[in-house]
Write a structure and sequence with these properties.
- Helices cover about 20% and strands about 25% of the residues.
- The protein has about 210 residues and is α/β, with parallel strands linked by helices.
- It has a single domain, classed as Hexapeptide repeat proteins (UDP N-Acetylglucosamine Acyltransferase, domain 1).
- The relative contact order is 0.11.
């Protein structure tokens, strides 16, 4: 009888990613570098149909048609609160892993690369050209294994234009990541961050309590 040893670090990372997104395949088995798949057939089919539908039915729509775009996203499994808006030029990688709280907005040209779940709290704002990236690769893996970690952006937080939020980051309530800022670490609630890598500069001031 063969007794299997403890799982390697790479195997543990694959197991964690599989729990976060069950559609991610083991690169050692599928060998994407040789043309194998990174995701299950079901996942790939949903994304194919989704991209066609969004391109034909939503990518060209003006801002005021937010209700129609919200309907399309919900139809493909996204959770969309009241008065949410995803602009037509935004790109949602996989709708079932998107969760927007009431009043949240993904602005023009936002890239929502949600290989793991991406959640926006109430009235969170992601400005034009920003990139929310919930997927990466294990650079120490001989197979360059794909990994996924969820992103959470708290209520009233603002991700400014062209900023980048990396896998596994939690942005606290009312925090701000300035234009073209880059973060791979959590951002503290109510604080302002700028630069690459993002550094904390001051607290965010409010003249009244937001409703």
């Amino acid at each position: 009888m063969m007794i299997r040893g403890a799982p390697t670090l790479s195997e543990r990372k694959i197991e964690v990613s599989a729990k976060i997104n069950k559609d991610i395949l083991d690169y050692e088995a599928t060998k994407p570098s040789e043309g194998g798949a990174s995701f299950t057939l079901r996942n790939r089919l949903i994304r194919f149909v989704w991209n066609v539908v969004w391109y034909l039915c939503a990518a060209w729509t003006p801002p005021f048609m937010h209700g129609w775009r919200r309907f399309l996203l919900i139809s493909f499994g996204a959770k969309m609160g009241q008065k949410t808006d995803v602009r037509g030029s935004a790109r949602i990688w996989y709708p079932p892993l998107l969760d927007l709280g009431d009043g949240a907005l993904l602005a023009e040209r936002v890239i929502c690369y949600n290989q793991a779940k991406i959640t926006l709290g109430k009235s969170a704002l992601v400005s034009q050209g920003a990139h929310l990236c919930a997927g990466s690769h294990d650079i120490d893996s001989p197979t360059f294994q794909l990994e996924a970690k969820p992103i959470y952006i708290g209520a009233y937080a603002w991700i400014a234009a062209d900023a980048f939020v990396g896998p596994g980051v939690r942005v606290g309530k009312r925090a701000v990541l300035g234009a073209r800022g880059v973060t791979f670490s959590d951002l503290e609630a109510g604080m302002v961050y700028v630069g690459n890598p993002a550094r904390q500069t001051r607290s965010r001031k409010f003249y009244r309590e937001l409703k």
